[in-house]
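Section: Multi-chain targets

For targets with more than one molecule, the full set of components is provided together so that the structure can be written out for the assembly as a whole rather than chain by chain. Components appear in the order listed by the source. The example entry contains two components.
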Amino acid sequence: MSTALHTDHYELTMLRAALASGAAHRRAVFEVFARRLPGDRRYGVVAGTGRLLDALENFRFGEEELTFLRRRGIIDDRTAEYLSGYRFGGDVHGYPEGECYFPGSPILVVEGTFAETVLLETLVLSILNHDSAIAAAASRMVRAAGSRPLIEMGSRRTHEDAAVAAARAAYICGFASTSNLLAGLRYGVPTTGTSAHAFTLLHDSEADAFRVQVDSLGRSTTLLVDTYDVKTAVRTAIEVAGTDLGMVRIDSGDLAEAAHEVRALLDELGAHRTGIVVTGDLDEHAIAALAAAPVNAYGVGTKLVTGSGAPTAALVYKLVAREDAQGVMRPVAKRSVGKPSRGGRKFAFRAIGPDGIARAEIVTTAPAMPVDQLEALAESPGGERPGRPLLVPLVRKGEIVGREPLDAARERHRRSVAELPPAALHLSPGDTAIPTVFA
Amino acid sequence: MSTALHTDHYELTMLRAALASGAAHRRAVFEVFARRLPGDRRYGVVAGTGRLLDALENFRFGEEELTFLRRRGIIDDRTAEYLSGYRFGGDVHGYPEGECYFPGSPILVVEGTFAETVLLETLVLSILNHDSAIAAAASRMVRAAGSRPLIEMGSRRTHEDAAVAAARAAYICGFASTSNLLAGLRYGVPTTGTSAHAFTLLHDSEADAFRVQVDSLGRSTTLLVDTYDVKTAVRTAIEVAGTDLGMVRIDSGDLAEAAHEVRALLDELGAHRTGIVVTGDLDEHAIAALAAAPVNAYGVGTKLVTGSGAPTAALVYKLVAREDAQGVMRPVAKRSVGKPSRGGRKFAFRAIGPDGIARAEIVTTAPAMPVDQLEALAESPGGERPGRPLLVPLVRKGEIVGREPLDAARERHRRSVAELPPAALHLSPGDTAIPTVFA
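Its structure, encoded as tokens over all components, is:
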């Protein structure tokens, strides 16, 4: 499947005009960054990079796309000719997937001709804005849940393909599993699920339903106990499955109160090892509020797939440098009110203190690590950990070099968050965890 | 492409258990409805039906899907056997696309065996929840814009495939066009676009950029005038393109103030017919606030594709009736705290007054139109328009019968909103435009 028409109309009219004038062949640098973090969050999380590399590989204009564009009068002969041979041949550097970012962090740097780089704007932003928004929410939920596992189950609350990407992003950020089967097939994310209220309602009694489920899925299954009366259902569940029952699920009511009641009842019935999973409109705040309740796992749906109040990451794709008529690369920046950009190709480093805690995000137009500055910021003159570079090669002369297993991104995210100052984990809106310093 | 794994894991474990017990073959009725409208909106809009019918046609378990499910231990032999021959053979009725709905409206009624109907839950909800959320926001924006056209341009702020569906939903609700090329190819939505700030920055001067654009796209194009200084850019634009220039676009700053200034300047320069399009984080409230400003068109991005604060429609898919052990259909309903459902297969009618204005949404378990009640509600005893049935056949014994051109849904939406009481158009949160009466 070609991804080439996941593109705004104006990318092609710009290309058409620039091909006519010749400016299309000027070398150009576009960067992806966020001016702010939505919801005044403490940190952002890069996600979608792996998906972007897959989509880039399929960014080709075939007969169907070209015929459509010509019939609609969007492109002329010259543009059609250019597009029929289009293959991104430039370089892409980026923050690796799972890495944290802050306002101004150049999380993706795309270099090539104006023609080949401008065309990618829409696709790049769609993928990174969606996946990073979900990741930022997921990461906060994982921190709020502490050592308790989280199950992603929001597929039904978002576009069917966005659901797959959301499950992937949540896994990167530490979710244990997803309900989405396609995320299992396509990305290897562990999937889980047992039964819904419909299954209980299908049977002539709750006991029938529980018996059928346990017979089929075993005693380690999770029985849903809030279709009718929770306490009656818990008693029935233990009668049917015995005290080896894996878990019971509560999906409604006051979850803290219900968890305490169900825990007491399970213990009274001798089912000390039977766990409790709670679901139902949970977000990071609700999860945190349940910390003292006897809950063993959380299922999160709507709030995860909608970014918990911030459904898009506000990332933009801006031209920061291009060749001039004399062939010299020049930094460029727009001066639109409230939406300024900084000219010049960026490099980025995270300054780390001697205690291993991040101090600042250094963004600079110099390719070398500004060691003096990093050391000063890290308060560790002569220290051994002045910082680390954040941009890694993803595409070199059109060849994809940045693929990695999803678990690598998951482990990177764990380390990246662990390195942030403790205030990063506050759920309240506030300052970013570390300042961005433009050097 | 199979859509079968756009499905939650638990649909398959329920199927597996129900196949083992035999309950899978009981006849069942599932309904889609909303308990409330997110954001306390006045009305909801059904969207996604056409996409759902396409997805249903491709809901097949092939070798790749079955191998995955077996390897993961999610299904057993019997379930694999069932799935390999799966083809939905039941009936689906639904509110036609573009129709307005209210809390409790049974917008989709799916009938068949439990096995064949339970499997569709996730896919049905993903599509309807996403598309209807976008449609509800789009409809409010169109009302706020009055006779001025709206351009959908939010692709970059949402998942790349969700973007295509969002453009489609916005068009149903009255948006004039989209920036998304794939929505043009796949659904015939008109597409538009001219240039971005990058195009101006690419050139050595703003005048160069404007000249290249006008040479390529003609004088009827839209020039973007806020890359540097707006007033300078407007003067340059008219110098380059003449007073026949189509439009100028403003994407930053105080849009009302800028529109007034730019209008005055265009008039001073003799460009009386050159229009002004404004873009930049517009939602229905911002659009309404610009009613008195000299604006000719609006471009809407982020807020449209994220549902303007309500990114999902809160639609659920609930079992409302099923066969019992004796083969008799029985209504069923869960009693979960705060999440009750109403048992029985529903029918729905909109009561219309003699003035042509909707009075109530009648939801009943009786297949015949409750004429007495409708007439009473419509305050038109003996009147000619007591109401109209809302459910139409979409699938009959597995055969898709509900396909229609997208423009039919667009026209239906226009009529459906026009029929609502004036308070329906208030943008503030409040009561639904008409009450839902369970008869």
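Residues 128 and 148 of chain B are 28 Å apart (CA to CA).
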